[in-house]
Amino acid sequence: MKPPKVNLVPKTVDLAVYAGDGATVRITVNGGDMTDGVVEAQIRTNRLDADPIDEFVVDVTADPGSVLLSLTGAQTEALLNGNNGYQGAWDMQWTPTGHEPVTLVQGKLTVVADVTR
User: Fold this and answer.
1) Among residues of the chain, what percentage have pLDDT more than 90?
2) Is the pLDDT of residue 116 over 90?
3) Would residue 36 count as lying in a domain?
């Protein structure tokens, strides 16, 4: 019999967006009051980069237990940085007041170059 396995790696959600278009995604968290503490979501080209290249706008007031993460069209366009596409990493971290941070979701972020500008 195999011993039980505990996986504490956050759920993977890969995002693909179109350059120049705004993008919003809703993340639902069961059993969490997301207004208690700080929620951040960052983008890095490589997971080990020292600084994020951009951050999502975070709205925790939409619904209880729900977070809206948004990027503007200007942000998605800037991620291309003159390239035909972009692929990086992103995650969302919640730090409840008085507790350690918890990364709730993570994954790849792909930006596809737009045609109509």
Assistant:
1) 78
2) no
3) yes
